Amino acid sequence: PRDVTHTIALAGPGDVLGIDPRQVLRVSPKPGSRAAEPDFFPLVEFDAPDLPWAYSPMLATPKGLVPWIRLIVLEADPSVRLERGAQGQSPWILHIPQAAQGELPDLEDSWVWAHAQIACEQSADIASTLASQPDRTLSRLLAPRRLLPNRPYIAAVVPAFKSGRVAGLGENPTGHPSIVTGLEPAWRAGDIPDR
């Protein structure tokens, strides 16, 4: 045996413009619902058990692996707009004005709001379940927001890293002046763009 050195390129958040809708297994509450349970957080579940972490540019920390996407829920308001993206952009673009910035969750705790689920009898069965029974796995993003009754909300899965936001808007994250390390968060408190 001999050592071989190869350079490989890994895909990151700046390489993804959308998620295949077939990945979405369930959303709660259902779109248009006015009777959401106030004791449950909004969620989206995906078929792939690793989807929230698949394009994370960070290594795992003692807290966990930081997901590359985040579920956000904003109170519906005429100033918060969800519009179709143009060619070369994400299929959907969420425009958030400065006034709504306080509604965005803190990205520092993103790892808490992403989960994987594998339905098996014992922890020793995890590897075999992943390999042979993909229908028994899923991933989940939760939004840390209590929904009030009879109020409309907009929920969206958005990039958690600035490179993903820049790419989603149709710009090239490589060489972008606001991206130095590729680990920059998509937003910071008090530093929210209007799109």
> Helix segment count?
2
Summarize the main sheet: 4 strands, antiparallel
Strands ordered across the widest β-sheet: 1-2-7-6
How would you spell out the order of helices and strands?
Answer: EEEEEEHEEH
Structural class: mainly beta
Report the portion of residues in β strands: 15-25%
How much helix is in the residues?
A: under 10%
Uncertain segments are none
Would you report the number of β strands?
A: 8
Mean pLDDT: 89
Distance between the termini: 52 Å
The best one-word shape is globular
Please identify the oligomeric state. single chain
Spatial extent as radius of gyration: 18 Å
Summarize the topology.
Elements: E1 24-28, E2 43-46, E3 69-75, E4 81-84, E5 92-95, E6 114-118, H1 126-132, E7 137-142, E8 153-159, H2 162-168
Antiparallel strand pairs: 1-2, 2-7, 3-8, 4-5, 6-7
What labels describe this entry?
single chain, 195 residues, mainly beta, 4-stranded antiparallel β-sheet, 2 helices, 7% helix, globular
Summarize the structure.
This protein has 195 residues and is mainly beta. 7% of the residues lie in helices and 22% in strands. A hairpin with a 7-residue loop joins β4 (81-84) and β5 (92-95).
Report on this model:
The protein has 195 residues and is mainly beta. The chain has two helices and eight strands. It has helices at residues 126-132, 162-168; strands spanning 24-28, 43-46, 69-75, 81-84, 92-95, 114-118, 137-142, 153-159. The strands form three sheets. A four-stranded antiparallel sheet has the order 1-2-7-6, covered by helices on one side. A two-stranded antiparallel sheet has the order 3-8. The longest helix has 7 residues, at 126-132. The model has no long low-confidence stretch (mean pLDDT 89).
